[in-house]
Specification:
Elements lengths: L8 H48 L11 H13 L4 H26 L5 H17 L1 H15 L10 H10 L6 H14 L9 H11 L10 H17 L1 H13 L6 H11 L2 H16 L4 H15 L3 H17 L1
């Protein structure tokens, strides 16, 4: 009769360890698959939002009524009130679109007949009023942006604070007028805020490619660098996209039809986010062009934005840094 062999404690321990490792590996694989699925859903959602923004701006030129001086003022006020970068970016977008639609409405209402002298006189009066309300409208845009942009360290700008700010600037408005201005801005842009901001697109794409970043690329530094580059893009939007148009067409002069055809590129946030990341890599790792090229290819595969286009816009941004 054969003697039954009993399992040793050591064999049981090894077997149990292998089972635990197998279970752990299976769970990790499921978690990774789940995360990738979530990331893909987010990317698809951002692509839809990006397309909506492009469609909404298909008939309006970005930054047409928002020169560098206005962007700089918005940035300065946001920094003085301790707002996050998202607040200043959204505030610029809101003010830019409000100004366009506001002027469009005013033109439609003023130039209604052929009496040139009468219309001219009325237009001068309207423009004088618009000029006097400029700071109020700008602050309203910042207020709205602060309310609708999520940030842990963000501080809302109360109507009373706006009233005091305007008073120091020699502008006297009641709290009711300040609140009414917010409503006016929202109605003018049809309550479309174009959220999320460009920095969210950038952060998401950085997160998506984080596993493929070089070990010596600090993700926090990359994020901070990208914020600085977005600032430059917003401050010098016209110069950057004018140069990109030249690179694309070989022509410096831009007719109205040329600008309309270029709008899908100029309003493509995913394209801009990819270029900002590529330029940020160039800043963080200035002597490692291969890594930057690899990142462009990865972003191309992820977003369907051609790697060559990403590199071209990134190069324009880098040139603007040198000029600035």
């Amino acid at each position: 009769m054969r003697r039954r062999e009993s399992s040793s404690p050591r064999n049981k321990t090894i077997s149990s360890r292998h089972e635990n490792e197998s279970i752990s590996t299976s769970r990790n694989n499921k978690n990774i698959a789940w995360m990738r699925s979530m990331e893909k859903n987010w990317l698809d959602h951002l692509k839809k939002l990006n397309l909506n923004i492009q469609n909404e701006r298909s008939q309006s030129f970005p930054f047409l009524a928002t020169p560098t001086t206005v962007v700089h003022l918005i940035f300065k006020i946001c920094r003085c009130t301790n707002q996050s970068p998202d607040v200043r970016y959204l505030a610029v977008e809101i003010f830019d679109r409000f100004s366009y639609y506001h002027f469009k409405s005013l033109i439609k209402n003023v130039w209604v007949n052929n009496e040139y002298e009468e219309c001219t006189k009325k237009w001068k009066h309207v423009m004088s009023r618009v000029k006097s309300q400029f700071l109020l409208r700008l602050l309203s845009c910042i207020q709205i942006s602060a309310k609708f942009t999520n940030s842990q360290n963000q501080k809302l700008i109360q109507a009373m604070a706006v009233k005091k700010f305007l008073s120091k600037a020699g502008k006297v408005y009641s709290l009711r007028s300040i609140l009414a201005s917010e409503v006016r801005v929202l109605k003018t842009i049809d309550f479309k805020l174009h959220i999320p901001t460009i920095s969210v697109f950038v952060d998401f794409l950085i997160e998506f490619i984080r596993c493929n970043l070089a070990e010596d690329v600090n993700q926090h530094i990359l994020h901070e660098t990208s914020v600085n580059l977005i600032d430059i893009v917003y401050l010098h939007h016209q110069e950057i996209y004018h140069k990109l148009h030249y690179i694309s067409t070989g022509c410096w002069e831009r007719a109205e039809n040329d600008r309309y055809r270029f709008l899908p590129i100029e309003c493509n946030r995913i394209f801009l986010a990819c270029a900002v990341i590529r330029a940020s890599i160039n800043v963080v790792l200035p002597d490692q062009e291969d890594i930057g090229s690899d990142i462009s290819v990865q972003l191309d595969q992820l977003t369907d934005v051609p790697a060559g286009d990403i590199s071209a816009l990134a190069a324009v941004i880098m040139e603007q840094i040198i000029i600035t």
